Write a sequence for this structure.
């Protein structure tokens, strides 16, 4: 029983150290020094094997009781330290509810997304449905089926993004327009066809009015009786609705596109005041899109007989008309992810464009 006073003394010393511990790190060092593999209590437990049976039993009971007392004391002191730390935080981290309201910064709808939806709403009211296609197309769908000859400049690598050749030697391209959607639609559908095809397109070009990736929307109408007058009326109604004006003058200029015949560039009247353009007033002209009657070769490539059906097509840049309508000076800013720009030109998430409620 000579060990008993030593155990009592060890308990007194350890309890005093635990009580004096000022933070959790010090408390952890005390725990390791007492109950760890090389701790003072653990060392005494290892010495039990050298004692006589009667002494071993008594010493073992005393050491086990000491372990429990010390473990409980450490746990209690840790709770006290955590409670004190929480009390200190509650006293120092005070929220002053008398401060004035600070508005929460909310997200914005990108101008391109807004204009995309505006255009879909307008053409939807005119009876068009939305068709979509892949960003990666074959040479046939992007060029050949659209009557674009092999020597056309658009096929050159300085204008088009090509992929590496495949096993058969053919090369896929990032579509340079959404016109391939027209061919896919004609292959899968029978006239009458009335679609618009909005989406991303890609070309090797970058300056104030061009970017390597941009947005286009193209339209296609195909049936037995559609004529040029239908095209002119459709584009006139679109421009009046999009620019939210009662009157717009349009000018159709003869042009050339491989996929339409005849082909026309379309201008609308405008005026320039203080560096800003106003649509529908004035005697100046501004080009906004290209159009024409679908070329017989394109109708034939889509799987239809050009002697039985005919139609018109048109295409315009979503980014360009967004710049015109909302006074955005530089096309490149659309894709620079500048939050300041987006907060200035962006739209509220609740500002859903409708023809009844207003587009913008």
């Amino acid at each position: 029983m000579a060990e008993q006073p030593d155990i009592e003394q060890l308990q007194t010393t350890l309890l005093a150290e635990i009580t004096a511990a000022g933070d959790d790190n010090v408390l952890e060092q005390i725990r390791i020094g007492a109950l760890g593999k090389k701790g003072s209590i653990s060392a005494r437990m290892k010495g039990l094997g050298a004692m006589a049976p009667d002494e071993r039993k008594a010493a073992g009971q005393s050491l086990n009781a000491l372990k429990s007392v010390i473990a409980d004391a450490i746990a209690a002191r840790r709770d006290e330290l955590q409670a004190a730390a929480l009390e200190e935080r509650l006293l120092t981290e005070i929220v002053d509810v008398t401060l004035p309201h600070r508005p929460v910064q909310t997200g914005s709808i990108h101008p391109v997304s807004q204009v995309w939806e505006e255009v879909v709403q307008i053409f939807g009211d005119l009876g068009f449905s939305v068709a979509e296609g892949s960003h990666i197309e074959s040479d046939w769908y992007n060029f050949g089926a659209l009557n674009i000859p092999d020597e056309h400049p658009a096929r050159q690598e300085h204008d088009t993004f090509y992929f590496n050749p495949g096993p058969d030697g053919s090369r896929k391209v990032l579509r340079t327009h959404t016109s391939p959607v027209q061919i896919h639609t004609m292959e899968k559908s029978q006239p009458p066809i009335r679609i618009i095809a909005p989406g991303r397109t890609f070309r090797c070009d970058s300056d104030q009015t061009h970017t390597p990736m941009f947005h286009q929307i193209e339209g296609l109408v195909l049936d037995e009786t559609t004529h040029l007058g239908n095209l002119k009326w459709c584009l006139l109604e679109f421009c009046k609705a999009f620019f939210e004006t009662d009157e717009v003058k349009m000018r159709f200029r003869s042009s050339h596109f491989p996929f339409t015949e005849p082909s026309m560039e379309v201008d609308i009247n405008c005026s320039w005041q203080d560096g800003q353009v106003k649509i529908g007033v004035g005697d100046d002209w501004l080009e906004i899109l290209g159009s024409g009657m679908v070329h017989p070769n394109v109708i034939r490539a889509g799987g239809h007989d050009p002697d039985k059906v005919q139609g018109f097509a048109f295409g315009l840049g979503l980014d360009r008309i967004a710049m015109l309508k909302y006074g955005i000076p530089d096309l490149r800013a659309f894709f620079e992810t500048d939050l300041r720009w987006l907060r200035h030109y962006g739209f509220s998430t609740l500002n859903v464009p409708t023809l009844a409620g207003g587009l913008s």
Observations:
- The longest strand covers residues 260-273.
- The chain has a mean pLDDT of 87.
- Strands lie at 129-130, 136-137, 173-174, 193-202, 213-223, 250-257, 260-273, 276-279, 284-294, 310-317.
